[in-house]
């Protein structure tokens, strides 16, 4: 209930910040009107918690088709017979009352044979669903024009050692456990845990910064097809891309718009709002490449001292403000090198929080994957059309940001809070075996 209530407070913050007309408006064809997301949150809770898990008739089954994300693309949603903001708020409150009642009456013990209820999975699934729509609504806020309506303190400045960090960290070769079979609220695409052998590689210690990315632009990176895949080059030409989304030229430098405010681009912050093609081109220009999804997860979770995979880069403790920039506490990424207490065993920082990180991998099922509870959650997206993002951005809730969580999107998408870091293969002379579990621990 606490996870559901935290999600609801954030939903209210994002939707109470604007007036009725703004809730009904479509701020971008890429996004739904905010009032669609709002009622969709209630409709999914009505369907999965009240009806499927609770075995009750539900409040508004007649709304299922209006708020079915697969039925109507985002651009067409303003034409649907949507609930008004007032009706949507009343609907969400009424559904939540039933949810509380369901929670009070069902058995959520891990031994419960109904997989929806075991370990309260369906409650976790809905809390994550609402938080993910909150993140989508945050992206809508970033796209809307007009005066700023959201406010949050800036993240703390980078720690003193940030400037002294090595540019890359080494991840020794060897097998590690990818995915999970034990996280109670993991979604189907994170299951099951399985061994993956990852050759040794080097990974950027921190995400690529605005300053580094601006060098790529200044060096003519957007004008030279040599850095781009053929699809990326066709897209960058056709879409006229010349900088991350929301950047504007300002003399020799750049400004960018951040939730309605225009400011100079901060050189030491991770770059955000770049598409996969831009990330891939930058990496090639830098003489490097994007990490694979398995490399990213190994860097984030594998503990060479024990041989096991951690829940989070820093260990198994739930994310706190000292570990990562998550949960919309701030409205921007923290400077590169922040959160030393959130570092992975390899020394890499900010793997969770700040910006989603594009990987080179297509979204694919793990060996032994089984769709649950419905194949539209993950299965219909598997294949070469979608690239995997890992790590979670500043607007991602801690309830979502597990070390195993997988996100995916089209390689042209830029309105999401996505950045990246780069990697390179290990040279033969740099090869070091992964120490045996327990080695070197007195
Ligand atoms: Fe949804």
Automatic annotation (TrEMBL):
List required co-factors. Answer: Fe(2+)
Q: Where does gamma-L-glutamyl-L-cysteine bind?
A: 74-77, 409, 413
Using the record's annotation, list all stretches that form the DinB-like domain: 3-137
Q: Which InterPro entries match?
A: CTDL_fold, DinB-like, DinB/YfiT-like, EgtB, EgtB_Actinobacteria, Sulfatase_Mod_Factor_Kinase, SUMF_dom, SUMF_sf
The annotated regions of Basic and acidic residues compositional bias extend over 422-433
Assigned EC number: 1.14.99.50
Region described as Disordered: spans on this chain: 297-324, 421-442
Q: Which UniProt keywords apply?
A: Iron, Metal-binding, Monooxygenase, Oxidoreductase
Any idea which positions bind Fe cation?
40, 129, 133
Q: Which residues form the Sulfatase-modifying factor enzyme-like domain?
A: 166-424
Report the domain of life of the source organism. Bacteria
What reaction does this catalyse? gamma-L-glutamyl-L-cysteine + hercynine + O2 = gamma-L-glutamyl-hercynylcysteine S-oxide + H2O
| A Pfam family this chain is assigned to | FGE-sulfatase
The similarity comment for this entry is: Belongs to the EgtB family.
Q: Which function does this protein serve?
A: Catalyzes the oxidative sulfurization of hercynine (N-alpha,N-alpha,N-alpha-trimethyl-L-histidine) into hercynyl-gamma-L-glutamyl-L-cysteine sulfoxide, a step in the biosynthesis pathway of ergothioneine.
Protein's UniProt name: Hercynine oxygenase
Q: Could you tell me the gene encoding this protein? A: egtB
């Amino acid at each position: 209930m606490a996870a559901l209530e935290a999600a609801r407070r954030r939903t209210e913050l994002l939707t109470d910040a604007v007036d009725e007309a703004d809730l009904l408006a479509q701020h971008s064809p890429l996004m739904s009107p905010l009032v669609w997301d709002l009622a969709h949150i209630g409709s999914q809770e009505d369907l999965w918690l009240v009806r499927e898990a609770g075995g009750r008739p539900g409040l508004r089954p007649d709304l299922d088709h209006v708020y079915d994300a697969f039925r109507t693309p985002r651009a067409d949603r303003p034409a649907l017979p949507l609930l008004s903001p007032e009706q949507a708020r009343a609907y969400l409150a009424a559904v939540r009352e039933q949810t509380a009642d369901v929670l009070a009456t069902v058995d959520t013990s891990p031994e419960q044979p109904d997989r929806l209820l075991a370990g309260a999975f369906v409650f976790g699934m809905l809390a994550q669903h609402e938080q993910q729509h909150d993140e989508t609504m945050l992206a809508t806020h970033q796209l809307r024009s007009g005066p700023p309506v959201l406010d949050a303190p800036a993240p703390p400045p980078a720690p003193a050692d940030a400037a002294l960090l090595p540019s890359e960290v080494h991840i020794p070769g060897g097998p590690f456990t990818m995915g999970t079979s034990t996280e109670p609220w993991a979604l189907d695409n994170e299951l099951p845990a399985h061994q993956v052998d990852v050759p040794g590689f080097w990974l950027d210690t921190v995400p690529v910064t605005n300053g580094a990315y601006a060098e790529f632009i200044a060096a003519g990176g957007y004008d030279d097809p040599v850095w781009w895949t053929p699809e990326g080059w066709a897209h960058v030409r056709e879409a006229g891309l010349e900088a991350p989304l929301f950047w504007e030229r300002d003399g020799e430098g750049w400004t960018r718009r951040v939730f309605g405010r225009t400011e100079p681009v901060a050189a030491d912050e991770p770059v955000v709002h770049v598409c996969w093609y831009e990330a891939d081109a930058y990496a090639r220009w830098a003489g490097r490449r994007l990490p694979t999804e398995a490399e990213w997860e190994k860097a984030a979770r594998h503990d060479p001292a024990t041989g096991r995979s951690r829940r989070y880069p820093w260990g198994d403790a739930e994310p706190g403000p000292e570990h990562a920039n998550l949960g919309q506490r701030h409205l921007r990424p923290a400077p590169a090198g922040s959160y030393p207490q959130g570092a992975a065993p390899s020394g890499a920082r900010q793997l969770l929080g700040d910006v989603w990180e594009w990987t080179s991998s297509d979204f694919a099922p793990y060996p032994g994957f089984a769709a649950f509870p419905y194949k539209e959650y993950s299965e219909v997206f598997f294949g070469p059309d979608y690239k995997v993002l890992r790590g979670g951005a500043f607007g991602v809730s801690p309830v979502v940001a597990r070390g195993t969580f997988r996100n995916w999107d089209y390689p042209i998408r830029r309105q999401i809070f996505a950045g990246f870091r780069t990697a390179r293969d290990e040279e033969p002379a740099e090869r070091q075996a992964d120490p045996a579990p327990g080695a070197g621990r007195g």
